[in-house]
Amino acid sequence: MRFIAHHLEELFTEYGIKKIDAVIPSHVHDDHTCGIPYLQKHFGVECWTIKQMAPILENPARWSSTPCCYHRPIHIERQFSDGEEFTWEEYKFRIYHVPGQTEFHSVITTTIDDSKVAFTGDNIFEHPVATWGSHTETDPIQTQVFRNSFQLSMHKRCKEVMNKILPERICPGHAEPFYFDKLKTNEYSDYIDQKETLFRELSPKPTEQYTDLFWARLLPYQSVVKSGKEQEFTLLVRNNFSKAKEFRAELLAPKEWKIVKGSGRIRLSSGSSGEIMMTMKAPTNPTNGIFRQLVTAEIHIDSIPQGPVAEALVQVK
């Protein structure tokens, strides 16, 4: 389901909406964000979001290794810290960074008609487990997409937040709202625990490393560079190992590009992250013309080669 402009008329007429002050996307995926530029242009709507999502929404080309990013930049008028409370009219909201279906995801809570409501985006859905006649029994599940950037600790964070807020009703990003309670919260927590157990049984060790497809990420993912100009790259690395590790990277440039600063290294403690900066220069008269080319970063962990596991796309203008 994508944004369709003529549905706004239905929103205004059927539900008596007079004005849209702000839109708060639950996460960065395009089916939840593609209508925001239209609302900003035609209705002067502000976009508010949690800080962890703002860089992706404001500069999607830089972060487009993250799947389903909407290609148009979105201006952010207000950024919230994790767990920050804010007020709109008579309602008090609280927003949390809850990296579930994607690393860049939030959950927003408020109280409506004495009921605690959680807007959970694409994190939590009901999964049918049994049917008796017209009744279907469901369990809450936490969505899982490795390519959306996943770490075991991220879903632990989801569990912690849901146990903290203990909502009475879930409003998901798709499908109808459904009731929630402490029992459902426990079932949701059990689902995450069981999923982690299965991942640890099935994956090589350490599981934290082999389930994290973005332990290395090259930024910007897409860049257009003027002929003869330099382009700086930031390699983001995460240490998923149980002890400190040294990460060394070497930039592998396309044909005709020149390396300016082609390598770097950083030592990271367990569970920490860091950056390695590298630079290359675009050709002045590229024989490849304006076509996109691939740049990669060859990475070693404690001198053990991991291959060119981080990539980006460059284009000469």
UniProtKB/TrEMBL annotation:
Entry keyword set: Hydrolase, Metal-binding, Zinc
Q: Flavoprotein among the record's keywords?
A: no
Q: Which part of the chain is the Metallo-beta-lactamase domain?
A: 13-174
List the Gene3D superfamilies hit by this protein, alphabetically. Ribonuclease Z/Hydroxyacylglutathione hydrolase-like
User: What cofactor does this protein call for?
Assistant: Zn(2+)
Q: Which InterPro entries does UniProt cross-reference here?
A: MBL_Glyoxalase_II, Metallo-B-lactamas, RibonucZ/Hydroxyglut_hydro
A GO molecular-function descriptor: hydrolase activity
Q: Can you say what this protein is called?
A: Metallo-beta-lactamase domain-containing protein
State the organism's lineage. Answer: unclassified sequences, metagenomes, ecological metagenomes
